[in-house]
Design a protein that fits this description.
The complex is a heterodimer of chains A (112) and B (117). Chain A is mainly β and 112 residues long. In chain A, 0% of the residues lie in helices and 45% in strands. Chain A is globular and about 40 Å long. Chain B is globular. The chains are: A mainly beta (112), B mainly beta (117).
């Protein structure tokens, strides 16, 4: 079962920052926060992941609260191509590798 | 670098028939995962290979599903016999290292859309 809670849907104006929240209050000490997105019926696309420090890459920034119970994915300048379902996932199994629970995600619509 | 490749992209079969899906992971990735989305529901984990060994197959729905990864390269997922409820999209993913958290991001293929009629 998914260990995260995300809003069902969000809108964002093109060119503005999209801030997607995620609650993961039961996250354990060795679990990472991953973000993926799925555009139409394509395969899920990796965006970013982190443990406790904020992370940034060419696609997005990940802000994790100090208590690690929530995080925010930031798309700094949303474009129409960023319209997708965004999944926040917490996972890491030291003995068995990784298994992702996708949940229902947030459907982000970027508006022209 | 080539991504994860899945074949076929679409398959339509009759109930009771057999279908085999194939996944070619990213070269050098020891970890290979199968997921599926059925009936518009959430994407669900099926199983995880480390090289040729099944590390975790807790998500396999029943014994009609058989996954193999001979030689630790590509993997196949066979459904025999197929049932109507098996219709959905089957995704394959691979990652470099399933145990090093810094290298556990998984890269997904485009999926195989299976329709059982």
């Amino acid at each position: 079962d998914a260990k995260t809670t995300q809003p069902t849907s969000m809108d964002c104006a093109e060119g503005r920052a999209a801030n997607l929240p995620c609650n993961h209050s039961t996250i354990s000490g060795n679990e990472y926060v991953y973000w993926y997105r799925q555009i139409h019926s394509q395969g899920p696309q990796y965006i970013i992941h982190g443990l406790k420090n904020n992370e940034t890459n060419e696609m997005a920034s990940l802000i994790i609260t100090e208590d690690r119970k929530s995080s925010t994915l930031i798309l700094p300048h949303a474009t129409l191509r960023d319209t997708a379902v965004y999944y926040c996932i917490v996972s890491y199994h030291p003995n068995t590798g990784n298994q992702f629970y996708f949940g229902t995600g947030t459907s982000l619509t970027v508006i022209p | 670098e080539a991504g994860v490749t899945q074949f076929p992209s679409h398959s339509v079969i009759e109930k009771g028939q057999t279908v085999t899906l194939r996944c070619d992971p990213i070269s050098g990735h020891d970890n290979l995962y199968w997921y599926r989305r059925v009936m518009g529901k959430e994407i669900k984990f099926l199983l995880h290979f480390v090289k040729e060994s099944k590390q975790d197959e807790s998500g396999m729905p029943n014994n009609r599903f058989l996954a193999e990864r001979t030689g630790g390269t590509y993997s196949t997922l066979k459904v025999q016999p197929a049932e109507l409820e098996d219709s959905g999209v089957y995704f394959c993913a691979s990652s470099r290292d399933g145990w090093d958290p810094e290298n556990t991001e998984a890269f997904f293929g485009q999926g195989t859309r299976l329709t059982v009629v």
